[in-house]
Description:
Layout: H1 2-25, H2 33-44, E1 52-53, H3 54-64, H4 69-81, E2 85-88, E3 91-94
Antiparallel strand pairs: 1-3, 2-3
Helix pairs in contact: 3-4
Amino acid sequence: MRVWVASLTIYYRVWCQTLELMAYWNGKSSLTPLTQEAIEALARKLSAERELFYEQAYAILEEKEDLNRSAAEDIVDRLYNKGHLYETEGKLRLTDY
């Protein structure tokens, strides 16, 4: 079971990177549809302070996008690395919303 989950996680990451490269080459958004849906789900659930703890972000993506924990962490990392999220005092904020 663990081997299957690890293989699926690797396949998912390679597939997302391939989609991002294709979008980049075509001059389109660098976000995959799943990543775009994830950022929209996070934006809808923001608190009044406009920030989330990491655990809240993971839980939102697990629930709303039907992802496992590893995939949710990967998407949060991707959004952070691309500048769509930033961290302040251990909390995440969206830069695009």
